[in-house]
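Flavin reductase, Yinghuangia soli. Tokens?
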Amino acid sequence: MTRDRGSRVAVDGGVFREVLGLWPTGVSIVTTVADGTRHGMTASSVSSVSADPPLISVCVNRSQQTHRLVAGSGVFAVSILGRDQTRLGRVFAGMEPQVRDRFADGLWKTCGTGAPVLADAVAWLDCTVEHAYPGGDHTIFVGRVQSAARGRAVAPLLYHSRSWGQIADPLPESVSVADVGLADALARRWVAPETVEHLTSVVRAAGARTRIDIKSAPPGAPPAQAAHVSALVRDPCDITEALSRGAGIVEISPTGGDATALAARAQEHGLDIVVRVPHAFAVGSADRVRAAVDEALGLGCAELCLEEGSEAASPLHIRTVVQDAVVRARPTPVRVALREHNGLGLANALTAMKSGVRMFDTTLGGVDGRLSTEGLLYLAARLDISSVTDPTAIARAARELENLWGARRPLGPDPDRPDH
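Tokens:
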């Protein structure tokens, strides 16, 4: 450290920058226009100042060309970058010197002030300079927001310790599971309907939601907790069958018949709707999933489920798709249905948890290729994540299934067996 002329202790410049680098911030592009020429720079020093009137601030180094242009034109705009716009942030930070036109990429437009805004950013604000205060080697420009809008529903880009990153949600406090494959798997093996009903009832009693097979489930009075019973429906007649078998939730797919008509019929009967998006984690599925999320929200769904298909998903792809869907669907919760491909199932589940998912579709014993209910709950318990579903009761149900199935189940702890 050194002492300045006022005998105050001045921190070393390198240490100062290193310490501030530990403060995570969002990443924005600050743009302006002067004499018809557009200019912009990447900035992290953007902050809100006031709600009434709407004011924000941005700090610009006095040596930057952007400083001269903002001071001269009296206008600037701020575009908040999404997690997939790292390269654009690097370009406007001057880190891609081979790029001659910084505005060549991205969807740019102008609003009231004439400063360019990035239409496909997370959000943007168009401002006129209200005040300009000296701040050492920077000027603090305070802008009055003339217009603002949200752009794409995507997680924001972050900057921390000289690295670009994105939000990784902490582990959830609790998770819930819905067993969606057991009844169908047993029915396909010609197990007696009363046995299917018994085993699904055991799973439901343990606190898990269960999907019934409307073709084989016995009709009768609705159970006391219809909210814990779902049915997969493909046509309006299926909804009638689901009601007669005590389901309080119907699951539909945008690709399986007239989803709009099914949703309307379900809502007429007071049923909650889960919209399922098949093959959500296939390579190149991002745009399709975004469109499906928007369609599902338009149907008035209570939940949205992203399904892994025959193509194995990787944790990185799970993270990308899930984070986008969670942000886009809020406040509608997103659940995932993962499969046990090449041992990646629980790794993908952990990634989904860290990306904002709190609900999982599973199958007892993993007998249909989905993650096993007991395996998912075991993972949650090892991570100190609670669940309304009793893992011990589920493990006992899995043991019963194992005896019925005639083979040892693939995953999960068993409190009755010494080798677990």
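The chain is about 30% helix and 30% strand.
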